[in-house]
Structure formats: structure tokens, C-alpha cells
Amino acid sequence: MKMQPASDPKKRKGLIIVHTGDGKGKSTAAYGLAIRAAGNKMKVFILQFMKGKWKTGERKSVESLSPWIEVEAIGDGFTWDTKNPEQDRRTAAKAWGIVEPRILSGDYQMVILDEINYVLDYGFLDKKVFLETLKNKPASVHVVCTGRNASKELIEMADLVTEMKCVKHPFGEQGIPAQKGIEF
Ligand code: ATP
Ligand code: MG
Questions:
Q1: 8 CA to middle of ligand 2, Å?
Q2: Domain with 53 in it: what CATH number?
Q3: Which H, E and C letters describe the chain, residue by residue?
């Protein structure tokens, strides 16, 4: 397929990108985009929504790309407690309070909402509020949403949707434990 670089600023368009599906590679592909953007001197903000999924390997690499990439993780300051949905909604609201102004400010050319699909799927964050923000984002901002079970509405609104399909995973029947550089 022929790639047409948008060198004309008028042709630049901030994309809504979704990585979903049950195969591995959704978050790592998003960090790949962050690295690519940072190499182009674009500012990237990453919010990691799920506790404990933010692994040391990518964290250290991404921190070394400061100031181009900034990261925050929910696991640092708050936790999910699925037995207490009220608490989880408050946690999601707090996370959204961090990231929404950064999407809308236009100060970042890429915002990665890692595992946001889970938060929406569990109903911790109001889907309508989320979709409204995407609708109102500055035209130049790319937003990347990862996680299984992306909503129909998000898929419809998005410009680029990739579904990772699991063909084989080492954790499955093979029972191979998590490997450094692959899982963390
Ligand atoms: P990665 O962060 O490696 O790109 P991911 O974002 O696609 O993975 P998540 O749904 O966020 O995957 O789940 C994270 C963890 O679950 C990882 O340790 C990943 O290897 C594991 N995982 C993903 N897909 C599968 C699968 N089909 N079977 C078993 N484990 C899986
Ligand atoms: Mg992931």
C-alpha cells in the first residue's frame, strides 16, 4: 500500500486509534506509536488506566524519552476495587480529570489511554462523557485507546481500528511463564 505523508499541514488529521481484541500486542503497539511520535518531536501523554499493568521495562524506556513522553499510571495513586463500584467510579473520574484536559488542551499531539476500554466496559467511566470529549478534541490530536471489548460506538467513531487476534499465547496450553522483555 502506498503511504502518503501529510507534509501539508492542512492535510494533517488527528486520528482516533483503537487497539482491541483478545490477542497480545494492544498496549505494546500503542507504546510503539509513542516512540515513533517522540522521534518526530511530538509531545505524547500516556495514561495507564489499569493497576499493575504498567511494567518496569516500558516505563523505564518511556521515561528516558522525557520530555517528549509523559506518563501517569493509576496504580501509582489509586487502586481499583471491583467490590466497590462507587469507589471505582471515583477512581475513574480522577483519572479522567487528569487526562481529559490534556486531550482538549492541544498541548499534546498524541494521548494514549491504555486499557481505557476495560474502564468503559465495566461502566466505571460514562461512555457518553468519553465519546463527547473525543468528538470535541482538537483536530490535530491523535488519541489511542487500548483494551479488549472496545465499544461499538468507539469503533464507529474511530479512524483506525486494529483487532489483535490470539492465534497462540505462551501462557495458554504451553504454560510458559512471563518472559523479561516480552511481558515486563
Ligand atoms: P501487551 O501489553 O503485551 O501488548 P495487551 O495489551 O494486548 O498485551 P492486555 O489485554 O492488556 O494485553 O493483557 C495484558 C497481559 O495479558 C499480558 O501479560 C499479555 O501477555 C496477556 N495476554 C494478552 N493476550 C492473552 C491471551 N490471549 N492469552 C493469555 N494471556 C494474554
Ligand atoms: Mg494492554
A1: 33
A2: 3.40.50.300
A3: CCCCCCCCHHHCCCCEEEEECCCCCHHHHHHHHHHHHHHCCCCEEEEECCCCCCCHHHHHHHHCCCCCEEEEEHHHHCCCCCCCHHHHHHHHHHHHHHHHHHHHHCCCCEEEEECHHHHHHCCCCCHHHHHHHHHHCCCCCEEEEECCCCCHHHHHHCCEEEECCCCCCCCCCCCCCCCCCCCC
